[in-house]
Amino acid sequence: MPDSKSAKENPPLNPVPALIWDENHLKALLGLRRHPLRLIQQQPWQAWIAQRGGLNQVRSSLHNSPLAPNQRLLLDTLLAHPDASATFYRNRLSVSQSTYFAYLADLVRTLLLQLNNWRVDEPAQAASDTALLTNLPAPLTPLIGAEQTVSAVTGLLDRPGVRLLTLTGPGGVGKTRMAIAAGAALLANYRDGVFFIPLETLNDPALLIPQIARSLAIEKLGTESLLDALKASLRRRQMLLILDNFEQLVQGGTRLVELLQAAPALKMLVTSRESLNLYGEFRFAVPELTHPDPADPPPLEQLGRWAAVELFVQRVQAIHPAFAVTEANQAAILDICDHLDGLPLAIELAAAQVKSLSANQTLPDLEHGLKALRDASRDRPPRQQTLWNAIDWSYQLLPAAEQQLFRHLAVFGREWSLDAARAVCLMADVQPALAALADKSLLRYAEPGEDGQPRFRMLQALREYALDHLESSHETQEARRRHASYYLDFVEGAEQAVGSAQQTRWARRIRQEHENLQLALQWALDVGETETAFRLLGAVWRFWDMLNVWSEARLWMERALAQGADLHSAGQAKTLWGASWLAAHQSDYAHALALAQRGLLLAREIGEKRLVGLLLQNVAGSLYRLGEYEQAIRLAQESLQLFRELDDREEIAWALDHLANGLWQRGERARSKELLEESLAIFRSLGHEWAIAASLSHLARLALQDEENERAAVLLTEGLALARELGAKQRISELLRDVGLLMWRRADFAQAHTALDESLALSREIGDRTGEGWALNLLGRLAMQQSDFGTARRCFEQTGVLFQQAGESAAIAYNQECLERLSLAENSQE
C-alpha cells in the first residue's frame, strides 16, 4: 500500500506521463475545427508523438487500427478532410447531426483507450481489439501524479488470488478516476472486457443486480432469478467489473461474493468511501496527491515534481494560459495545496476561483478564504472536512440564484439536459448559469444529447453537498416533485412516437435518462404517488423493451402493482399490460397470462377500450405458448375488431400479426401470410422500424417452412440489416437462427455454423434462454446431419434443460423428438 507521508517526501519523477490524452488533445490530433494543432505541439504531447515516430506515423497507426465499421468510416473522413465543419462530416456520412456526434463520441472513447495504452515499444494496434470490449468513460483531462498508484492497483489485480479489490478514500481523492485508469491499463488482460458500472444514483441494494445486468446487456428468462441469469452468463467470462461509488449499497455486498463464486475468471474493482468487509476483499487506500511542506519549500524549479502543485497550475492555466509559478506566488500555492490535503477535487475547485486577470493577486485571497473555513464541520472526518470546506468556499462565493440552481440540480441523476434543468430548477435563462457553474468546476459538461442539446453532470461529492443544502433549505420535496413531473411528461411525450419513424431516436433518449427515471420512480413510490409511477411505467415500458431493460422494468412494475393494488385505475391496467409483455419476453408464460387476465378484467371494468384490445393480444399471446390455439385466435379476432372500430392503425397491424400467428399454428398458411403482408404494409406506412423487423422475421419463418428459400433470403437480409441498425439483439438472434437454417439448406455448413454460433452468443448475452435453446437445437440437428452424434446429443440435452426452464411444452416435445431421431441414427450406424 502506498504511504501518503513517504510519497509526500519522495515525489515520483515522470516528465512525460503515460496517460496524457484527453478529448481536446485527441481532437487536435485528428484535425477537428476549434481544436488547433498547437495544443499537441506543447509538452508532454510533443514528446509523446516524437517518441512514436512523429505526427504522420501516429495518425497512420490510428488509420490502420481495427475499428467498428461506423468508427472506420468516420475516422477516414476526419483524416481525409481536416478542419471541416460538423455539417460537412455528417453529410459525408449521410447521418443526422445527433448520430454524427454519437459516432464521434464513440470513436473518441475508443481512440483514447488506444493512445493512452500505447507503449513506445509496441504498435498502436495492440490495444485495439480489447478497446471495443469496454464501456469505460473517456477522461477529459490527463491523470496527474498517479502513475505509481495506478501501477500498484494494476499490480494487485494481476495477482491470481486478488479477485475483489476495493479502492477506499474520502470523496474527491480520485477513486473513480484511478479505477478508470487501472481498467484502461488492464484491457488486454481480460478477454471478455472491462466494464464500468456507475452506482452513485442508487440507494436500494435491490437495484444492484439489475444495474450490473443492464450494464452488461444480460437478462433473465423464465422463472429463474436475474441473479441466476447473471451468474450463468458470467460463468464463462474473463472480465473485470468496475463498481463505482458502492458506499450506499454496502448491504448488497454479499451479492458480489455470489457472483465471484459463480464465475472463476471474474474480477471486481470497487470504489467506496468505506471497505465492504467481505471475505476475500483486498483494500487499497487511494493516497492524496503529493505536495511539499510549506514550512520547508523546495527550490522553485522542482515544484513541478509535486502532483498537487502540477494539478493546481494546470487548472489555473486553463483559465490563464500565461500563469506560472514564481517566487512571488510560490508560498500561496504551497499553502493552498497543503490546506486542501492534496485532494484533487478540492484543488480543482480552488483553481477555478482564480478568475481575476491578475491571478497572482487572487491567490492570497483564496489562501486566506480557505484558512477561514478550516474545521467548519467538525462532525466529519478530517479529509471529509477538507473537501466539504473547499466546496463550501466555492458555494459561498456564488450569487443567490446560482446557489439555488446548484442545490436543485442535486435531484438529477448522473446527467441531465438543458431543458430538464430549466423545468426542474424554475430558471428561464438557465444556460448562462449552468455555464457559470461549469466555469467554477461545480458542474461538468457531458456528451451532447441525442436531441443535440447540451448535457451536464455533477460529481458525486458535489451532489452530496448540494443535497445536504437542499434538505436544509426545505426545498427537497418540491424539487423532487418537479423532477418526477418533468420526466413523466418526457416519457408520455416519447410514447406518442411509438409506432412512428421517431421511435428509435426516442429510445436512445430514454436510455440517456435512465438514472433520472429510476430516481423519479423511487420518489413516486416512496411518497405514495403510485399513480404517477403507474403512468410513468405505462409510458416507458415499450422503450425499455427495445433496450432490453426487462428485469429491472419488471421489478419496478411489481413494486408499483403491490403498492397500488386497490387503485383500479387506467395506469394500473396499463402497467399490467406492460408487465405481462415483459414476463412473456422472459419466457415466464404462466405469470404473463395471469397478469394479462388481471389487466383485461380491470380494463373491461373501467371501460378502457384501447387497453382492452391491447390486453386481449397479451392473453392470446400467452395462450399460444400454452397450446390453447382456438381460444387465442378468438381473442386475437376480438382485438382486431376493436382496433378497427377505434381506427388505430398501429394496433390493427399488431392484431393482424397475432391473428396470423394463430392461423399459422392451425395450419392456415396462406391466410396467415396474407395477414402478415397486410400487417407489414401498415408498419411500413408508419415507418415503424422495430415492427417492420418483427414482421420480416415472421414472414421469413413462414417462407422457410414452405420451402420458399429465395423469398426467405430476401426477407432475412432486409430484416437482419434493420435489426442490426436498431441494435435489437433478441431480434438479431432470432433472424440469425433462420439464416443458419437457410445456409444449411444451401449446404453452406460453414456459414450455417457462423450464423448459429452468433445467435447462440447473443441469446446467452441477453439471457434469452428460449433463443439459446433453439440455437442449440439447430446446431444439434446440423451436427446430426454431419454424423457428429456426440455434439448433437450434447446440444439436444442442453436444449431440453433450457426449454424445461421456459416451460414451453411444444418446444420440449419437439426437442424430445430430435433426441429420439438421434438415438435411431446412432443405432443404425452401429
Give a concise summary:
The chain has 830 residues and is mainly α. The chain is built from 40 helices and eight strands.
Q: Radius of gyration, rounded? A: 29 Å
Tally of discrete structural domains: 6
**pLDDT < 50 stretches:** 1-18, 121-132, 372-378
Helix run count: 40
Structural class by SSE content: mainly alpha
Spatial shape: globular
- CATH fold-level topology of the largest domain: Rossmann fold
How many β strands by DSSP?
A: 8
- Indicate the proportion of strand residues: under 5%
Residues in helices, as a percent range: 55-70%
Detailed description of the structure:
It is a single chain. With about 850 residues, the chain is mostly helical. It has six domains: about 25-125, no CATH class; about 145-285, Rossmann fold, CATH 3.40.50; about 305-395; about 400-475, Orthogonal Bundle (Arc Repressor Mutant, subunit A); about 475-565; about 730-830, Alpha Horseshoe (Serine Threonine Protein Phosphatase 5, Tetratricopeptide repeat). Helix 5 packs across helix 7 (about 95-115) and helix 34 runs antiparallel to helix 35 (about 710-725). The longest helix is centred in the C-terminal third of the chain and has 21 residues, at about 810-830. The protein is globular, with a radius of gyration of 29 Å. The model is unreliable at about 1-20, about 120-130 and about 370-380 (pLDDT under 50).
